[in-house]
Amino acid sequence: MSIHFQTCGIRLPEASRGDRKTKVGSTQHFTGGGVFGDDQGFRLGLESHLEKNAALLLSARSSTLGLREQVSFDWYDEHGEYHTHYIDHVATQIDGDVVGYAVRPMERENLEYLAKLARIKEQAIQQCFLDDFVLFTEQDVCRVELFNAELFHAVRRPDCFADPVMQDVAASSVGVTTIDDLVNESGLDGMGFRAAVRFIKSGHLQMVRYERIERSSEVFRARSI
Length: 225
Description:
This protein has helices at residues 49-60, 111-126, 143-154, 162-171, 179-186, 190-202, and strands at residues 3-5, 9-11, 32-36, 42-46, 64-76, 82-93, 98-103, 132-136, 177-178, 205-207, 218-221. By secondary structure, the chain is of the alpha+beta class. The strands form 4 sheets. The protein has a 4-stranded mixed β-sheet with strand order 5-6-7-8. Helix content is 32%, strand content 27%. It folds into 2 domains: 3-141, Trna Endonuclease, Chain: A, domain 1 (3-Layer(aba) Sandwich); 158-221, Arc Repressor Mutant, subunit A (Orthogonal Bundle).
């Protein structure tokens, strides 16, 4: 995947920032990769469908500044023997906190695994490697949030034509309006809708209700555009 810039041609995504390469194929589970981040982005390896959903959700949250996958951490067990654990996702937040996520389906959890995570969490926090380490399961996937996260990801590339037009339209809006009204005023149809979604992601437009982002959704200007 690549992005075309008029001033600098083709720029490929940056390499994965993980400490180990993820599998590129498996007969037992989902594997794949995605491109996340601004501009040309960076590659993120994925070894389960749940990891993909977690990456989409984390990258879409306004509190997330950066994301890495498969981050290595050396820990020791109750016998003093050292092991290397690869943390599925590590998110750096805008408040400076670094949070690790162990992504695992609930059906694969057991007391031994949870005890291992608790030991890793304690040591990672003590060593200031992480500020928190949490378990991410399918119960942490909100269907509304995931829908919007997938939409944010799909329209993340700026549009040098539509974005300035929607910027002027949104900047002149007063009070609560609908995305459809903004799109109609822009005259850009689908291009205008995608631009409006980007302004929601950037926080310049804010949803009135927590719901799937659609043209009928009500929004208001949250800060100067």
